[in-house]
Amino acid sequence: MALGNHSTISEFILLGLSTDPHVQALSFVLFLAIYLLTLLGNLMMLLVIRTDPHLHTPMYFFLSHLSFLDLCYSSVTLPKLLENLLSQKKTISVEGCLAQVFFLFDTGGTEACLLTVMAYDRYVAICHPLLYSQMMSNQLCKGLVCGSWGLSFLDAFINILLALDFDFCRDQSIPHYSCELPSLFPLSCSDISTSFTVLLFSSLLHGLGTCFLIIFSYTLIVSTILGISSSSGRIKTFSTCSSHLTAVLLFYGSAFLRYIMPTSGSPLELIFSVQYSVVTPLMNPLIYSLKNNEVKAAVRRTFRKYLQYMLTKDRR
């Protein structure tokens, strides 16, 4: 399965964005700002959750992994995109393309699993509050996170293993700014039926499967909330899920709009793709910091401690 023995093409051309130099310059500034803000926002979430004892709970343990995932996910595509915006030759090696496919599979699948785990956490917190500490033990939380990473890694490994046998001997052009497995199917001269079947199964598992579990969890949550007698109690209880529900709608909504469209490079497809792979990792820390009072309070405490430390250091 050595790639060099099969492939007659050594690199692909990424045609996802405009070739107009002025548009490219503006796009570079925009995507660089988004990338830096994504790094800053998610690193801030990791720091706050790590340093604030009030956030050492299962929900924020999962959120810290979500922030780390968003860091990884954006770093898979954006650095290469920024490089190509400054380059006349917008290419990526076959090996680099397949590596990008693998890590997109791994991080995207893990995020879907992790959002499902977080939905289960909200279900336990609302439907079984007295048993929450017992049901969401440290061992279970670590097991759920490891299971999410492990399942997605296995899924990505199987898909990329099949893709390594592709014979790329047709058009080198990919109508996208990053490499995704469906984009490689039209470029392959070899049989893709097995890879397509495995990809379809993977999509059903990580897409519809996790989505069904999230919907099932929220059906039980809504049923419990409707059973609360006071309207203020219902609103207060539902507010504990609002950040996660917003993140779920953003992730699955943009993914659904991205992947129901054929790979054609149309402007609408690119907009949905940017929304899914670029904007979503930026929005998650904003959603959890702006809509969550505990996180906002923790951010204030963290900055207060930092300022006190700097003032004490200056006095010395």
List the helices and strands and how they pair.
Elements: H1 3-6, E1 11-14, H2 21-51, H3 58-85, E2 91-93, H4 94-127, H5 132-135, H6 138-163, E3 173-174, H7 181-184, H8 193-226, H9 231-259, H10 267-290, H11 293-315
Parallel strand pairs: 1-3
Antiparallel strand pairs: 1-2
Helix pairs in contact: 2-3, 2-10, 2-11, 3-4, 3-10, 4-6, 4-8, 4-9, 6-8, 8-9, 9-10
Q: What does this protein look like?
A:
With 316 residues, this protein is mostly helical. It is built from 11 helices and 3 strands. A 3-stranded mixed beta sheet has the order 2-1-3. The protein starts with a helix and ends with a helix.
The major pleated sheet works out as:
3 strands, mixed
User: How many helical stretches?
Assistant: 11
- Based on Cα principal axes, name the global outline: globular
Share of helix among residues?
A: over 70%
Total count of strands: 3
Order of strands, main sheet, comes to: 2-1-3
SSE-based structural type: mainly alpha
Radius of gyration: 22 Å
Write the element-wise H/E pattern from the N-terminal end onward. Answer: HEHHEHHHEHHHHH
Quick recap of the structure?
With 316 residues, the chain is mostly helical. Helices cover 76% and strands 3% of the residues.
